[in-house]
Amino acid sequence: MAAPSCGAPGVWIRGTGPRSGSLFTLVSKAFCSTAAATSPLNAQRLAERLRAQQREQETKKPEPTNPIQRRVQELVRFTGQLQRVHPNVLAKALSRGILHQDKDLVVISKPYGLPVHGGPGVQLCISDVLPILAKILNGHKAEPLHLCHRLDKETTGVMVLAWEKDVAHQVQEMFRTRQVTKKYWAVTVRVPMPSAGVVDIPILEKEVQGQKQHHKMTLSPSYRMDSGKMVKVRTNRSAHVAVTQYKVLSSTLSSALVELQPVTGVKHQLRVHLSFGLDCPVLGDHKYSDWNRLAPQKLPVGILKKLGLKQSKARHIPLHLHARQLMLPALGSRKEELHLVCRLPRFFAHSLHRLGLEMPNQDQNGDFEAGHLRAQ
């Protein structure tokens, strides 16, 4: 059989169906005809053309007419922008969101959905792009930046990096000895009662029995009620001391914006204290909203209506936990405390607006006063 007249290589697939026999089918016909009319493409031009075609196809996708589908698409767009990109693209995005930079430290705004460290199934993480980020900020001869602490994959907000390993160790020691003040903002399902207080309940990790066995952090109280009296119980050796201060900043009948200040740093401490200690799980916490199951968070009808979603689409709601503020003691040549504040991610701000929660405005003295949020 004569090959088609084409100046560029084709992709052939052997057919074995009843009508094709042993014939071959040309797959890249459109590409072939284009290439024949022009000069041969090099790899770079071909890649650029394919990317342009992909962008054109994406722009041609019709906008969903269903409001729930539009809302889901909006959540996916807000939360998935940096999860499947090239490391260079991620490093560039992080460099545009620098909160603070000096000769010792670099402070970034951690995006949603990106783990800090690698592991099974992790395609991209913060630590992978630290060498690239260092070169963007300080030239091609710059040494890689170093992590000073970590945030959960789903948590957004302030993250501190150091230029030198010994500086990173100093900051890590500050975190370990509780010299660093951290404040988080969370949107909760239901309103904590009382509106301000301290949760002082140890936490340990347990295996959850069920259809799918898994491990979760849970409470290990030091006291229990016995015939109306509070009785001290033996402390579990595996339990960790966990203390969280909290304060409701704004609330409605079914949700609240809560400021959290962890005194200790136990794994998933804030989420466990809110869900199991105060019965007010973080919005979008699909792990700790139910002890027995790993399933999308069950939400009240009122919250779903305000968010423009159905329960079947609740799995698309991201974790609304944001590392809002961080205060570092004096370090090296810097003689004063470093006060860092990170803006809310877009999905968080939009949820506040939809739920009717007011975001505090910070005045010049650093105090907060309630003010209406405008969606970005």
Description:
With 376 residues, this protein is of the alpha+beta class. It has helices at residues 29-37, 43-60, 67-79, 87-96, 130-138, 165-176, 269-277, 301-307, 346-355; strands at 12-14, 24-26, 100-101, 105-110, 146-147, 156-162, 181-189, 196-200, 203-208, 214-219, 223-226, 229-232, 243-251, 255-262, 321-328, 338-341, 359-362, 368-371. The strands form five sheets. Strands 3, 4, 5, 6, 7, 8, 13, 14, 15 and 16 form a ten-stranded mixed beta sheet that branches. Strands 1-2 form a two-stranded antiparallel ribbon. A two-stranded antiparallel ribbon has the order 9-10. The longest helix is centred in the first third of the chain and has 18 residues, at 43-60. The chain is globular, with a radius of gyration of 26 Å. Mean pLDDT is 83; it is low at 5-38 and 363-376.
